[in-house]
């Protein structure tokens, strides 16, 4: 599943992954991603940190409450706190 509000990026990533045989699901915002994850069972989530409505960190935390699906976070941010925030969110919530 690709979660990003940049349609061109989703299209480009989706095309490349489709060419490699992957089935692509997508969501343009965090709320839609969480809803789709309730119905679908993707093998991996590519997750943008800067999403409209609900940021990627919050989405990752919600995913971790119900699943250990692998999450790869995509971001243009390069600040250290962003990296550490993402890593903390990706850990298992107990």
SSE inventory with pairings:
Elements: E1 2-3, H1 7-19, E2 26-27, H2 30-39, E3 45-48, H3 56-66, E4 71-74, H4 80-90
Parallel strand pairs: 1-2, 1-3, 3-4
Summarize this entry quickly:
The protein has 94 residues and is α/β, with parallel strands linked by helices.
Word description of this protein:
The protein is of the alpha/beta class and 94 residues long. It has a single domain (2-90), classed as Response regulator (Rossmann fold, 3-Layer(aba) Sandwich), CATH 3.40.50.2300. It has helices at residues 7-19, 30-39, 56-66, 80-90; strands at residues 2-3, 26-27, 45-48, 71-74. The chain has a four-stranded parallel beta sheet, with helices on both faces. The model has no long low-confidence stretch (mean pLDDT 85).
């Amino acid at each position: 599943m690709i979660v990003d509000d940049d349609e061109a990026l989703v299209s480009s990533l989706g095309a490349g992954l489709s060419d490699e045989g992957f089935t692509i699901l997508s969501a343009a915002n965090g709320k839609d991603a969480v809803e789709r994850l309730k119905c679908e069972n993707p093998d991996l989530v590519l997750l943008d940190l800067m999403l409209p409505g609900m940021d990627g960190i919050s989405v990752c935390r919600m995913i971790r409450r119900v699943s250990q699906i692998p999450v790869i976070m995509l971001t243009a941010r390069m600040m250290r706190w962003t990296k550490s925030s993402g890593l903390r969110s990706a850990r298992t919530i107990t």
